[in-house]
Please model this.
Amino acid sequence: MFLLLLLVVFLSSSSSSSSSSSSSSGSAAGPRPCPPRCLCYEQADLVDCRGRRLDRVPRRLPHATWLLELGGNNLSRVEPRAFAGLWSLRVLVLTDSRVQEILPQAFFSLSFLEKLDLSWNRLTSLPVDFSACLSALRELRLEHNNIQHISGYSLGSLDSVEKLDLSFNQLVWVGPGAFRGLSRLRHLYLHNNRLTVLQQGSLDMLPGLEVLQLGNNNLSQIDSEALAPLYSLAVLVLEGNNLQHLKFKTFINLHTTATHIQLSGNPWSCDCELHRVFSKILRVRHLHIDDYRNVTCREPPPLAGASLAWVDGQLCVAETATVLVITVTVLVTVVAAVVMAERNRKRNRGKNWDTEQRGEETA
Model:
């Protein structure tokens, strides 16, 4: 949408046909070449090759191209040095182009690229050198692919990336150090994947991360130290996972100014321990559970569908009653034992006195 608006603004601002007229082949007039079936807008350095049924990245692209739109094609793969010579390129869009494979050195010479959109393709993995020539990249979109794992080597050179979208993929796990080179990352979108565990070390070296979207995965466990490195985290989305219990330590390790957390849509097992954890979190000044009223119980069956906020005061009643019964039972047992001991003592004392009296009479 952003790219469409950019093109519309440019076209509407052109006051004469000379600024954007095309040759008979569909290219803009001017001294610089334009690939067949593409539109080149010389004044803005935009090249539009959307939906042209291209099966490879076109050659003869103007060297001054600032924005290249290649969405909606049939590229299948991105060849090595496919964009060689495009040193001025800042925005590259390859969305919905059926890309299945990115070969090594595919982005050679794109040292000044700031935005790369590879969303809605068929990628299952990224090459080891994926980020080698993308040191200036600020936004990387990889959502709606089939990526199953992320290697720290693939993303290791993305020193300038602020936004990374890996949502709607097939990620099962994110290993330690997977994002180790993304020191300026602020927004990380991992929702709608298949993650089951958030491991300690998987979010290391992300001191500036502000938004972490983990909703709609299969998370059932969060290591107690997994969130500790996130000193700037402002939004943490964990809704729609498979969480049944939480550890208070997991969240108290978030040393942030203020963090807003979303936890609804999980199959919570509502018991006294869960009540205590939520109660502690709610009392921490910098932690805010925004959707606490929507946190509902799955277990036990009598509480299924009930809001934790409505029943939390009752969850410890049974436990308290049980403890009280046990305490009373123990107390009664102790008192009974003391009474019996006292009776036995008195009985023994009486027997001893009788024995002494008989001895004196005999004497």
Notes: The first strand starts at residue 39 and ends at 41. The chain has a mean pLDDT of 85. The longest helix spans residues 317-362. The domain at 1-163 is CATH 3.80.10.10 (Leucine-rich repeat, LRR (right-handed beta-alpha superhelix)).
